[in-house]
Amino acid sequence: MTIQKWMGLCFLSFVASACGDYLDIKPDKRLVVPSTLKDLQAILDNYSVMNMESTPSLGVVASDDYYLTYNDWQTANLNDRNTYAWEKDVFEATDNRPTDWFIPYRMINYANIALEGLDKIVPNNSELAAWNGIKGSALFFRAWGHYQLAQLFCKDYDAATATQDAGLILRRESDVEATLSRSSVQDSYDFFLHDLQEAAKLLPIQVFTTARPSRVAVYALLARIYLQMRNYGLALAYADDALALQTDLLDYSSLDTSLAYPIEQFNKEVIFQATMNYKGVLSAAKLRVDSLLYASYDDADLRKAVYFWDNKGVLTFKGSYDGSLRLFSGLSTSEVYLIKAECEARLGNEVEGRETLGRLLRLRYRDGQVPLSEEPLLRQVLNERRKELILRGLRWSDLRRLNKEEPYQKTLIRQLDNRQRVLLPNSNLYTFPFPDIVISLNGVEQNPRD
């Protein structure tokens, strides 16, 4: 067992004992009043809320990372069937608490409770580091939750229209009864980017478990966000900042591919630990890997055996960085290397981009022998991103941003019995609707789905 794995398991035990009443803390802050730094840290250390199944999987269900058989689609729950088939009405009027909407806002609420509790505590010198760490963590979690929501319930960021496009309902405080309006996409991004800038000043470089945010995690998330915004200069700068502090990569040749899940939880590539909320359609029993995607992995590509399992001719996925059936959705050094390589390619830094990509790929191919590619560097990087980051919760965001560039647009097709469903590039269906209950309670604008 690695030291990081051991520390992670110790952390889970710590959470179970330290949180006490806060493990079941209610979203309404009036029901529990945390009053000490220990209390506030315990709120943020609630692994089951802040890390485990804490990010939405709605975009994964709608993406082309996998497919379902017609029978498995028919027997799925209504929400998953609607999402998979890109229906206009995803949640249906009876779904008053859709998980993919609720869990990020629950996380945000916990973060706001911690921030409001800190406002009432004046730390002495011996408490200052803990106070800063709690505030930095709460700001990170609030930004992380809002960013996850923006990838689903807002249009993709476009600098030309962001001030006019409808954004999130931003939660700046923990009063769940407050009636709020929608911000713009620009205001939404400004809000969580500001939270992250503040968190970077407060968080330590290293933490004893990646279930807690660190400064490296802030830099990695900023790199991801600026890539999504197509601000390649800042995305590259933050990727470099992250890699200046953490560069570890797994050597896939050292992994035991006979295991059900070859990649350990809390492995050395993980910068921040998180998994998606569970969906039955994404289970190993139902999820099917597209044969064309599988064929895109060279026979010398170690990911082919690490990521995929051939169950009597049916290909499914086993490559989660959680070391379990849960799908990893956190931050990793491998993602940061790919962000860096893409930005270098887009900015014309050809030599640097090839070297950055090579550092990753040499640990993904047998004997480090990476096949030569005649493709342009950017196309190669995007192809490797597709193969490396499968089922990490990133494909939906990538489709949204790359659809704005004609050479990389993709039309998605679902074959459901004798019916074909089509999702065109830049369709309004790439932005999910707000739940009906949110619209009725707050009177906010609904996202168009025509």
From TrEMBL:
<dbReference type="Pfam" id="PF14322">
    <property type="entry name" value="SusD-like_3"/>
</dbReference>
<dbReference type="InterPro" id="IPR011990">
    <property type="entry name" value="TPR-like_helical_dom_sf"/>
</dbReference>
<dbReference type="InterPro" id="IPR012944">
    <property type="entry name" value="SusD_RagB_dom"/>
</dbReference>
<dbReference type="Pfam" id="PF07980">
    <property type="entry name" value="SusD_RagB"/>
</dbReference>
<protein>
    <submittedName>
        <fullName>RagB/SusD family nutrient uptake outer membrane protein</fullName>
    </submittedName>
</protein>
<keyword id="KW-0998">Cell outer membrane</keyword>
<keyword id="KW-0472">Membrane</keyword>
<dbReference type="InterPro" id="IPR033985">
    <property type="entry name" value="SusD-like_N"/>
</dbReference>
<comment type="similarity">
    <text>Belongs to the SusD family.</text>
</comment>
<keyword id="KW-0732">Signal</keyword>
<feature type="domain" description="SusD-like N-terminal">
    <location>
        <begin position="21"/>
        <end position="227"/>
    </location>
</feature>
<feature type="domain" description="RagB/SusD">
    <location>
        <begin position="334"/>
        <end position="409"/>
    </location>
</feature>
